[in-house]
């Protein structure tokens, strides 16, 4: 899995992530399933900051996941300080992709990519990317081209 090493990370969010006792598996490290929950927490923060879920639901659609890919780089333990970063890395006509990095004590512990779409709440069929989100993404893209 490729990590976007550039500083161009559209609509990036950062989240301090506490490691809980119930996150630890029988050998004393964070269980792989916990990373899925952390990605959900990061996506919810993204929605809180950039595209409110309540607004989407009121307009009759919601985001859905189509796939998740995670590459584990190093184990995380209960005493580690964990930070997650997530950004919108691609926005197509119907599909979106977010990338994420999980750091443990300032060292890369995992990279992830998730793909999804927006679906109509009436018929559960994909809809085009909402114009407002597309415009916000494109504004960010233009801003980085000037730099």
From TrEMBL:
GO MF term set: fatty acyl-CoA hydrolase activity
Listed InterPro entries: 4-hydroxybenzoyl-CoA_TE, HotDog_dom_sf
SUPFAM superfamilies: Thioesterase/thiol ester dehydrase-isomerase
One Pfam assignment: 4HBT_2
Protein name: Thioesterase superfamily protein
Species per Swiss-Prot/TrEMBL record: Nostoc punctiforme (strain ATCC 29133 / PCC 73102)
Lineage: Bacteria, Bacillati, Cyanobacteriota, Cyanophyceae, Nostocales
